[in-house]
Amino acid sequence: MIAENTQTQMRKGILEYCILSIISKGEIYASDIIGELKKAELLVVEGTLYPLLTRLKNNGLLSYSWKESTSGPPRKYYQITSEGTEVLQKLDITWKELVYAVETSLFGRK
């Protein structure tokens, strides 16, 4: 049980980073974000993704636009903002520092 809780917290901690990184490659529809996360074996359900996207948008890191769909109602496509790009660059640095710290701690790498 303790390991599962720690694993869940670790995944939650990197989810925003992964989502910003995916969106930074170009505007994207929410179900495509889920698909990208699944390819990376980071399973996320819509009930987790949509509140996170809303929070990122409310924090000024994302914006969205509506686009007509040939297979149904209009779709909301997300884009990263300039502030989101700045945050992502800082998260990239933090990720590299964390990888170094973990690898050094676990494997004694220098």
How would you characterize this protein structure?
The protein is α+β, with helices and mostly antiparallel strands. The protein has one domain (2-107): Winged helix-like DNA-binding domain superfamily/Winged helix DNA-binding domain (Arc Repressor Mutant, subunit A). Helix content is 65%, strand content 17%. The chain contains 4 helices and 3 strands, in the order αβααββα. The protein has helices at residues 2-23, 30-39, 46-58, 82-107; strands spanning 28-29, 62-69, 72-80. It has a 3-stranded antiparallel β-sheet with strand order 1-3-2. The mean pLDDT is 93.
Key words describing this protein structure:
Arc Repressor Mutant, subunit A; 110 residues; alpha+beta; 3-stranded antiparallel β-sheet; 4 helices; 3 strands; 17% strand; Tscrpt_reg_PadR_N
Strand arrangement within the widest β-sheet reads: 1-3-2
Number of helices: 4
Query: From the 3D coordinates, which CATH architecture would you assign?
Result: Orthogonal Bundle
The structural class is: alpha+beta
| Gross geometry | globular
Instruction: Determine the strand fraction and express it as a percent band.
Output: 15-25%
- Assembly level: single chain
Uncertain regions: pLDDT < 50 for 5+ in a row? none
Distance between the amino and carboxyl termini: 33 Å
- What's the structural domain tally? 1
Q: What do the pLDDT scores average to?
A: 93
Main sheet record: 3 strands, antiparallel
Number of strand segments: 3
Q: What is the helix content? A: 55-70%
Q: According to CATH, what is the topology?
A: Arc Repressor Mutant, subunit A
What radius of gyration results from the CA coordinates?
16 Å
SSE order in H/E notation? Answer: HEHHEEH
For the record, the CATH class is Mainly Alpha
